[in-house]
Amino acid sequence: MTSPLRRRGAAVLVAVATSFLLTGPVAQGTAANAHPAPSAPSGGATTVTLLTGDVVTVTALAGGKSAVEVTRPRDAVGGYRTESVGKHIFVLPDEALPFLAAGTVDRRLFDVTTLLESGYDDAHSGGIPLIVAGAPKTRTLIPSTAAVRSLPSIDATAIKADKAGARSVWQHLTGSLANPKLRSAGYTKIWLDGKAKASMVESNAQIGTPAAWSAGLDGHGVKVAVLDTGVDQNHPDLAGRISQAVSFVPGEDAGDRNGHGTHTASTIGGSGAASGGAEKGVAPKSDLLVGKVLSDEGFGQDSWIIDGMEWAADQGAKVISMSLGSTEASDGTDPMAAAVNEITERTGALFVIAAGNTGTEAGIGSPGAADSALTIGAVDADDALTWFSSKGPRYKDYSLKPDLTAPGNEILAAKAGGNAESGWYESMSGTSMATPHVAGVAAILAQQHPDWKWAQLKDALMSTSKKLDGLTAYQVGAGRVDVQNVITEKITATGSAYFGFFGWAQDRSTPVTKTITYANAGDSAVTLHLAGALAVAGGPYDVAGGAGGPGPRTNPEVLGLSAQTVTVPAHGTATVDATADPSLGAAGTRYLGEVVATDATGAVHARTQVGFYIEDERYTLDIKVLDRSGKPLGGFLELQKFGPGSPWLEMVDETTGTATLRLRGGVYSALMLADVAGIDPDALGAAVLGDPEIVLDRDRSIVLDGRKAVQATATVPGGQRTEDQVLRTDWYRWDGTNEPVLERWQVSPHYDSMFVLPTKKVTRGEFEVTTRWRKTAPLLAVRNGNRDIAVFGQGGSQLYSGKGKVDGVLVGNGTPADYAGKQLKGKVAIAKRSDDIAAPQRAQAAADAGAVLLLVINDEPGRLLEWVGGDDDYSRIPVASMTARDGAALIASARNGKIQITADGTPNSPFLYDLLDPHTDQVPGKLAYKPRTDQLARVEMVFHGDATGPGSDFRYDLRSNVPFGVGYRFRNTLPGTRTDWVSAVSKTEWHEVTTIEAVLPFHDPVVEERSGLITYRGGQRVSTDWFSPVVRPRLGLGAWQPVRYAGYMAVNITPWTDGGAGHAGFLTTDQEQLRLRIRKGDTVLEDTTWQAGYADTDPEKATYTIDLEAARDPSIWKLSPKTHTTWVFQSQAPAQEFGDDLLPLVQLDYDVETNLAGAAWPGLQVIGVKASHMPGVVGAGKIGQTTVAVSFDDGKTWKNVPFIGGKALFFTPPGATFVSLRATAKDSAGNSVSQEVIRAYALRSIHS
């Protein structure tokens, strides 16, 4: 019988790329010398609840590795897969895949990285913010939600789904999406209400602003809205300059406690009062409206931003400046981009939006990707493109973005909260700083031409900009904004004309025409001479080397003009058609250029950016998938292409088992994870069907034939009877250059077998398939006469501990009425599953009748797994199920309604096998792992505890190509011992975690101990103690270490580390009282109630002190209820500018011989005390003097004791029940430690 700690879904699929790192949105503009706040106590865990109700836990380990655990909702359907793309990790439940493939559910809802970095983790947010597109009349009927705001510009509503009810929200919303009858009346798409982040004398001179001022143009009378982090209205440059300031951030006023909004607002319209007018903004007389859409932390939900956009336009803002955006590339169809287009069209306002700071190709986020937005990149003081400025083309369709650039590097503007002493101004860099320059110029232009709408302003700013030689429109748009030219030039033109994206299979025989409009604001007609040319500017953005600057000009016939000259009448317009002939272009090529309008003297009047893209060659890949019987098999096929890019899913038809794909030429890996028939007639099998190397240089066909798949098996030495607690197969593929992909499929007890399709040996990159087992003694073995009955533990069930023969009683469907007249005390209840009674109530009825075990017979083929526990505890009675086939045979053996069975429970297996079988380069024709004992390490696991109680543990495997382990803890009972056998395979490390669980609610972890990364050798024998004395503050390899950076130090002290070597321990509840202080001399740099904190530091070498007081309830924790540790150490800035030096804190280890309850015999005590440093610290010296003192009255009095040869020697006085320890040590570099541990260990009674 298998019984995981919590009920899991039917299958667990984990697909991860090997660069897992939790990072969040990048600022569009940032100040220098910022440092992060300390993370949550680590090695503690961070959890986040997904909309499907799945709970994902991520635990950071030492060395940049992590452990990931997913807890499925009790009524989950199918399994889940975890997929890492770049630095983002996704958890994708099977039931979400159809909606993700159809595009009706936002993928970001399952982006764990984005959710955590956005502050949507469970510790910081009790709800999941959503934007629901569509206008159903039943919005108020969505369970477990609250309507936040209406977003009429995109026909949507922002709602907040309560995490406790997330599952019901998911079922309600996806039911609407899946049911055509409901779709017509309601929801069309579910988005995460994500977060965007805030992304002058010299810069004004650079763009020519003084010329406008000299002409009397300063933005007077033009309303400019600044949507940002608010504004400091007390700053002299902005005092009296803000006509309205409104906050759209819940719980925050419009004040700026971030600094970003004040900086951008003053760049647009600051008066320069604090600098005698020198540092005034571009349009110092504009009418500024401020909408606070980003919080004090610099983040804003999409719905806040959209609400602010609608407000700004409704207030009559002519120009709306937005120095913000998402870090994910946008194709211009997401809610924020759609809102920009709709509001622009409705009101005529011009949105000036930052391109972003990813610095990458196709990196422009939302809302800057909107068609109508004037999207701004950044250049430096020399008009060179900055390294951080996001570049085009627009994601997916290769449209022309950004539109324009402006100065954005080291821009000086108003400082929020500034004063004469600290300074009124600060420098920031980013496209956020470039954007308000252009917004200010737009205000000046709107003042000059009050009747112009958004398109005229945008075209004028683009067509009159300064051309930046050597750069393309995908890098800088039309060029750098030129104030003097835009206010003096009478001729303007369409800013850009994109001819389109031409797919490989698309008919390109028909030329495409776009109209360029020339406008003349002057009093005389002007004749323009037109010349247009296109140049090759690179290839696909998602292929290495695809980017490119201006290349050789193309065939002149590719771009044609309907006229070579055009006369534009005074105060009128004229048009010319530009025609591109894609049939003359080459596949996989970007074509960019411009149409230049000059006069008879050759002077340039206007420039229009033009371009198109022809998709590279595609081939047909026909895929056929068969199950183990040769029948068609449908499902989701994952494809990975060598080169840049992420894996993606394709649907294989359920009826035909086929998929026909048109793909770019190259090398692909294809993988399908599917349910097939298992070994047992009533069980499922898991099939890993893939081809790791498909060379697509022409049309090809492949067959993934389940009939050829081989079963992956493991046999333990000695032939012990075991059952699988973990069964998993990993598929790793790497092209050698880009992101490797690792997929993991870990199945539940629904499955009795794993099959893998053998492959040929790969010739490119790296490929590895690994099978993983965790085997224990059967938790419950049931026999009926001479017949073994396979039983399966139910979710939330107690574990059975009885052994031997026991009477079984048939109780119908197991309802309370079915027990009438039956004697069940001390017997086994045998019930048929029925919808007449829910599984928890069925278990309760059996317990009420006095049964010691409930066996449930499934009412349909296959294995039954149900949740039988309560809301906050396990069931009162052990519950297991059996198949309908086995149940029928059991019933047939009944005599007078009674059945004789033998039930042997083993709730704590005396042994455990953690087995791993990797194969490189190919899947072999046989997967039968039969390790010898000399190929395994023997690990004696010793679990200490002063009282019997629940616990759990797990051992994560991490191959060298894997950044994190995956798994979930299995239940055990403390105290106790167990013999583990672990595969000793090369390039493999193991990470071990154990917990003491609370009784309620639901046995959640209270204390957690984590090991570092362990490498085992074949034949090695080790013993590992968990929760053993002496528990005290001690750094361990299972958590991140205190570290020194250039301007600050980050400190993390795990306060409850046990006596096991290399462990790191901490409480995971609020049962502890901590005080962590960091001092430099007498100056307190940090004072916090967390175990982690940070302190700003000066670069020179100095003496620092870390002081940690830790306490926990002595009525619960008999040992180490209180500790006090002080570290004194020397530290200075790292030698390298971006270095990170581990701090040289002296650590203390104690060697105390106790029983499992933590008690030693009284009398002579020989206690080992060893001082040392963590590996890799900087500034450590040689350990010198060590002293030890003891107390027998909980620290009221202390006595120094002899310390000889690393041992403290002393006698315990009569009647003593606990020993408290105080130890000190120092090294030759001036680093020292002093540690007091009250009740470090107990003393046994002489009569015990």
Automatic annotation (TrEMBL):
Q: Could you say which residues form the signal peptide?
A: 1-28
Natural source organism: Allocatelliglobosispora scoriae
Assigned protein family: Belongs to the peptidase S8 family.
| Active site per the UniProt annotation | 228, 260, 432
Q: Name one Pfam family in it.
A: Peptidase_S8
Offer one example of a GO biological process linked to this entry: proteolysis
The lineage's top-level taxon is Bacteria
**Gly residues composition bias: which ranges?**
269-279
Boundaries of every Peptidase S8/S53 domain copy: 219-479
| Sequence segments annotated as region (Disordered) | 250-280
PA domain location, by residue?
A: 808-890
SUPFAM superfamilies listed in its UniProt record? PA domain, Subtilisin-like
Q: What is this protein called?
A: Subtilisin family serine protease
Keyword terms, alphabetized: Hydrolase, Protease, Secreted, Serine protease, Signal
| Keyword presence, Acyltransferase | no
The record's GO molecular-function terms, alphabetically, read: serine-type endopeptidase activity
> Is this entry keyworded RNA-binding?
no
